[in-house]
Design a protein that fits this description.
By secondary structure, the protein is α/β, with parallel strands linked by helices. It has 12 helices and 8 strands.
């Protein structure tokens, strides 16, 4: 796979969960998706991108739209970045179809979120994730975000899933450092922070990397933070993290996609509107966001 990958960092270290740019009428902006992906990889030094995840508004896109965006991004940067396709739904058969389609257009891996709304038991999670992993030859990352899905992946479940040769990592947005440490220690899965405010704490106890939202704006600084920590410069890593606190907070004062798209638009990068039931940032929210990003030293906002 392209990007900085290894057995301990199977998808690289720094990845951004990319928004899906839309045109003003709400249709896909595929040229914009390619331009944004190129910026994230070539300017902000992302090792990889997650396409069609939560931040990519997968819940309000059709399968055909998901595939079109994925293919466009692979064409733009797939030779130099790891491209993961979000394929998780609350229907196992649908997720299998999405995984096979992603493999067919050249994705380097797949990410599957815990099924939402139907709140399956842990045995159902094992069967769901295993079925998706069995559907292709691609490496897979599970995505544990119970505040969105209503169901947490339990430790014994992750241990069972880790026995599958293609389930190689877990994206952790559980917000539970105790669980994260036990998960890393007992499953052997590569652990990726899925909660930006916990990026450094999770890296400090052994996480492989980050799948970030604020990476749209500060991916280069997040990567520098991880590199400082990996070389033993804890003080530098901590200093970078402190400088990013206003960015972490600012991008999540309301739903993260809303403010990320607002910030990208202010930078002149492709983003466009969000789709209902999300709504675009208000003028007041944009003013607060601008101040937050200025405090965090984001280019185009500072000074």
């Amino acid at each position: 796979m392209p990007g900085r990958t290894s057995s301990t960092h199977p998808f690289g270290v720094m990845l951004t969960a990319m928004v899906t740019p839309f045109s003003s009428d709400g249709s896909l902006d595929l040229a914009g998706a390619q331009r944004l992906a190129t910026h994230l990889v070539d300017t902000l030094h992302n090792d990889g991108l997650v396409i069609n995840g939560t931040t990519g508004e997968s819940a309000t896109k059709s399968d055909a739209e998901d595939l079109a965006v994925l293919q466009a991004v692979i064409e733009a940067v797939g030779d130099r970045a790891t491209i993961l396709a979000g394929v998780g739904t609350n229907d196992t058969r649908h997720s299998i179809e999405a995984a096979r389609a992603a493999a067919g257009v050249g994705a380097h891996g797949v990410m599957a979120v815990t099924p939402y709304y139907n709140r399956p038991p842990q045995e159902g999670l094992v069967r769901h994730f295993t079925a998706i992993a069995d559907a292709t030859d691609l490496p897979m990352i599970t995505y544990d975000i119970p505040k969105r899905t209503g169901t947490a992946i339990e430790l014994d479940t992750l241990k069972r899933l880790a026995d599958h040769p293609r389930i190689v990592a877990n994206k952790d947005a559980k917000g539970d450092l105790d669980f994260a440490q036990w998960g890393m220690a007992s499953t052997g899965l590569a652990w990726y922070s899925g909660d930006d405010i916990l990026n450094l704490p999770l890296l400090s106890v052994g996480a492989a990397g980050m799948i970030s939202v604020v990476g749209h704006l500060v991916g280069d600084r997040l990567k520098a933070m991880a590199q400082a920590l990996s070389t033993g410069d804890v003080l530098e890593a901590a200093a970078i993290n402190r400088s990013l606190l206003p960015v972490y907070t600012g991008c999540f004062r309301t739903q993260g996609v809303i403010l990320t798209k607002a910030a990208l638009e202010m930078q002149g990068l492709p983003a466009g509107p969000v789709r209902l039931p999300l709504v675009d940032a208000t003028d007041e929210q944009r003013a607060v966001l601008r101040a937050d990003l200025a405090a965090g030293g984001v280019p185009g906002f500072a000074g």
